[in-house]
Amino acid sequence: MASSIEPIVSAHHAIPRYQQIARKLKQAISDGELVAGSRLPSSRTMALELGVARATVENAYGELVAQGWLERRGQAGTFVSPSVTSGANNPAFVTNQPQGAPLPFQMGLPALDAFPRVLWARIMGRRLRLQTRYDLVMPEANGESTLRQAITDYLRFSRSIDCQPEQVFITAGFQAAMRLVAHTLAKPGDGIWLEDPGYRYVRPVFAEAQMVLHAVPVDEEGMQIDYGISHFPDARFALLTPAHQSPLGVALSLTRRHQLLDWVAANQGWLIEDDYDSEFRYHGKPLPPIKSLDGPQRVIYAGTFSKSLFPALRVAWLVVPQQQVEAFSQHAHFLPCTAPLLIQQTIADFLREGHFWRHLKKMRLCYSERRVWLEHALAQQGFDVVPQAGGIQLVMRVNGDDRALVEKARKAGLAVQALSDWRMVSQGEGGILMSFTNLTSQAMAHQAAKQLRMAIS
Ligand SMILES: Cc1ncc(COP(=O)(O)O)c(C=O)c1O
């Protein structure tokens, strides 16, 4: 195997050496020279044979792992992914996707290659060994107390939110959090303002609680609060993503934050603040969350670990006003937290031992780099990217029917989404939504942008 790679590894080549190795390995897999499930030489051995630095081979392996051609199996080594088939010359991420591997541009995912899985496994293993027989009983309905304490500390330092652990309710994901809010505070017929365009997967939760969904348009300052007040003055709830509006990425302006708080206070309503990816901001100073300005105590704050750690955890949380703790606790008995205790304990340790901070710091750097790669690659292909200060997705303006364009892109294996699909009633301009988090190299970003151009031209 190594001998067939050797001739192409050259320092004078226009392509970096690690990519030369990656290309050759891909070719060997496509040609059937390396079959699914076969073990590759260790990076040390391969580096010795090729006369390159071990890091160069590691980079090549890492790139192919990210693209789904290879998989790492801890100490057992690096293997050709079992689901990869020979004979494919197309990029792995289009045709040879191992199950669950992200498609190019796939939204809603953090960078899977950058999560410290070994550290995570160690913390979880230690937790498991430390568990006692008393950990076998029914867990607390509002979530594990050490995790509620760790979230309280994190919010105090990173988001200027002053709360007590009893105000924190852990839930199995954001939808479960919204279900708990609806069951505790809403009655059938209550109106809720929702951002239009906005996160569509939450709408069924409020519909199921027989609430009335009001679409409030979003502009470059976030939700148009004036519009909500004039069109739906009697609504009792408003759900917003003030840090980075989902999906447009704009921040809710300070004026509108105050306007909103005044409205909920005067109306005895509730503001649900979805702070889901506020950890990722690349320039400009972030505005503090509305919860930190919540004098009237009308804000329910919602956070999730889906973007800051990983979505398979299914762990989110609420911070509720002190006066509502009793009501939420009672309803939590009927909608108890179903996130497994071991997962909750592991997250708590990850936070308390400082790994979470370090991980976020690393991810901010990683995402700001990947974002720039994709922005440049799209610009080179003539696409019109809307500038955003944060978040883990991008929006491009497009002329014409965005759904039709997305349909074409999807046929080419690209997991972009149409802005129109996120709208409720609004008729604004068309857009294509995409994420950059799993584009692990500049070359990959360029290739994906090129494929997108080819697919939708
Ligand atoms: C706007 C918004 N809020 C919240 C979430 C978090 O959802 P969950 O905790 O269910 O993964 C997401 C996930 O994509 C989202 O886009």
Structure overview:
By secondary structure, the chain is of the alpha/beta class. It has three domains: 2-96, Arc Repressor Mutant, subunit A (Orthogonal Bundle), CATH 1.10.10; 119-356, Aspartate Aminotransferase, domain 2 (3-Layer(aba) Sandwich), CATH 3.40.640; 360-456, Aspartate Aminotransferase, domain 1. The chain contains 16 helices and 14 strands. The chain has helices at 2-5, 17-30, 43-50, 54-67, 92-95, 117-130, 145-159, 174-185, 203-208, 225-231, 254-267, 325-334, 341-352, 355-380, 402-411, 442-456, and strands at 70-72, 78-80, 168-171, 191-196, 212-219, 222-223, 237-240, 270-274, 299-304, 316-319, 384-386, 393-398, 417-418, 430-435. The strands form three sheets. Strands 3-10-9-8-7-4-5-6 form an eight-stranded mixed β-sheet, sandwiched between helices. Strands 11-12-14-13 form a four-stranded antiparallel β-sheet, covered by helices on one side. Strands 1-2 form a two-stranded antiparallel ribbon. β11 (384-386) and β12 (393-398) form a beta hairpin. Residues 88-95 have low confidence and may be disordered. The structure holds pyridoxal-5'-phosphate. Pyridoxal-5'-phosphate binds next to α8.
